[in-house]
Amino acid sequence: MSAIAIRDVRKSYGKTEVIHGVNIDIADGEFIVIVGPSGCGKSTLLRMVAGLETITEGTIEIGGRVVNRLEPGERDIAMVFQNYALYPHMSVFDNMAYGLKIAGLSKDDIRARVDKAATMLQLQPFLDRKPRQLSGGQRQRVAMGRALVRDPAAFLLDEPLSNLDAKLRVQMRLEIKQLQQSVGTTALYVTHDQVEAMTLADRLVVMHDGVAEQIDTPMAVYARPATTFVAGFIGSPAMNMLPVEAAGNRGLMLANGRTVKPRDIRLPEKGRKAILGVRPEHMAPVSGPNADLELDVAAVETLGADTLAHGRLAGVENGSGELVVRLPGSTQVRPGDRLALAIELGMAHLFDAESGARLKELDLPAVPARADKRLAEAVNA
Amino acid sequence: MQTKRTIFGNRVLPYALLLPQLAITCVFFLWPAGQAFRQSFLREDAFGFKTRFVWFENYEKLFADPLYHNSLWVTVIFSLGVAFLSLATALILALAVDRTLRAARTYTTLLVWPYAVAPAVAGIMWWFLFNPTIGILPYVLEMLGYDWNHRSSSVDAMILVIVAASWKQISYNFLFFVAGLAAIPHSLVEAAAIDGAGPMKRFFTIIFPLLSPTTFFLLVVNVVYAMFDTFAVIHATTEGGPAQSTNILVYKVFEDGFIGLNLGSSAAQSVVLMAIVIVLTVIQFRWIERRVQY
Q1: Which chain A residues contact residue B202 at CB under 8 A?
Q2: A81 touches chain B (CB under 8 A)
Q3: Beta bridge partners of A32
Q4: Domains held by chain B: number
Q5: Other CB atoms within 10 Å distance of the CB of residue B30
Q6: What does pTM read for this prediction?
Q7: Which domains, ranges and CATH numbers included, belong to chain A?
Q8: Can you tell me the ipTM of this complex?
Q9: Is B35 a member of any domain?
Q10: What is the pLDDT of residues A339-361, one digit of tens each?
Q11: CA R_g for chain B
């Protein structure tokens, strides 16, 4: 039985539909991250699960119960807000105890539960303080504690780390993950940050314009993005997208008239227009004759471990054909250089030119195993 | 707090700019206040021929006067009545506007209008509405079985002046409550809803406590208003009657001084009022601004 089931959920404000039928099945104890750019409907979807927004169409089930018509308090969920939403006039203890008091628990019971959560979150010394006397990280913990004490069927987290500074964010990210694993409660987490999404998620939901474009493990989303949007959104720097036209046996014709023939992928029928996607980290400099692509370097960014070479596909004049390649940090490359590059085996992606959908029928069944290491690098960039 | 400082090139200019305000303050506030203070130690005959310095005799008589005690008591009831009625009504209206998505601005604008009505006009309007002979409200009340007559019933009279004085103050309080409610993050209310609190519980445990700085501020402002700014309302409706039952301190100053021509006592009463207003102002600035903050 799934902990949360979102079935064909739609949301309209007046006549404008902002969520166009989303289906997600979340298993018990799973950590699901909904990621997408701002305005993609990810927060709206979470708020519909919480009961803070009405559901225009479709059903949401929590623990096997349809909750469409239930009040937020009756849904057996706890939520962590972006601004923490701590009650400013109550102590940390009272903040955590508020929901329990309303639920009518005995004083001893409340004290025991709050103490347990406070110990887990190292909040014991601060129980008598007011929220304004706490640092950002501590407030964040109180917000987590308030969710924890209620022992709900699911945690809902709405960009909980975006008000923290970069260092604290990395630390709290880890703490949230560990906490969720230790209590084993289902979590639905919304963020626009792909690093948070990749590191936290058991499964990712990539949303764009009110549609869940791909629901899969972070690795699968990275290795086989379902659409050009997902391909561009997950991974940094973003995947290179080159318009191509199938040229039969010669392979794929690029905008500069040359052809490229990735060896690990089936080729579309001749004349079909497509988009060839290659991640910057999946190209390597080679000697001339083995090259798939040639890059005219326009700018170089040295990041220490890596060097990013930005530029344009050789021989392309009119604005298109932008290309980025990630090279080892020791590579000597200067603007004006022409780099001969080979696409790594199994690392070419083909998408439909119009819909942007992945041409799945062209994928070879083998999923490249070594992408793991690359993923870790991409995420830590 | 950061303040903007303007540097004037000319030394005289800043004083010249201050002069009109200072002149108004001196002529209409400080001078009469000084006059009242001086007069409160004097005793004058009814025709103004002889004036005698009597030390604190005016005050001694005043504090021994049962009519003055009555007026104090009436003022307390009246002020609290006005403060409670106007605050409660304003809060309910503000909560209603806060829940409204469409037309909230229109409601707000309409609800602020009464504040622009002169107190005497408001008093007359309520006097008409409650007039036992021609008013519509006594007519309605009579159908409900209540015989309204504020000319003979002191309870009716008190209700009349409280309603009349509260009416325009509701607008003022409403504006502050709307602003106060807007300042409460919506996510707090949502968090409480997720914690299982119903609308009433949310109001009393989250919204009302967070509004308390606004509420305390308004309480003081309203008490000050009811005590000092309601002369016209009383004058246009009950004139302190029946049987002194709505004769609040401010009205008594006028009645004793200008009708009864007991200038010494009237001046002493003014000085007492001044003392009260000073105390309330100090409370407002010191105690409230520091204590009720989150």
Answers
A1: none
A2: yes
A3: A188, A203
A4: 1
A5: 11
A6: 0.78
A7: 2-223 (3.40.50.300), 228-380 (2.40.50.140)
A8: 0.80
A9: no
A10: 899 988 888 899 998 888 998 87
A11: 23
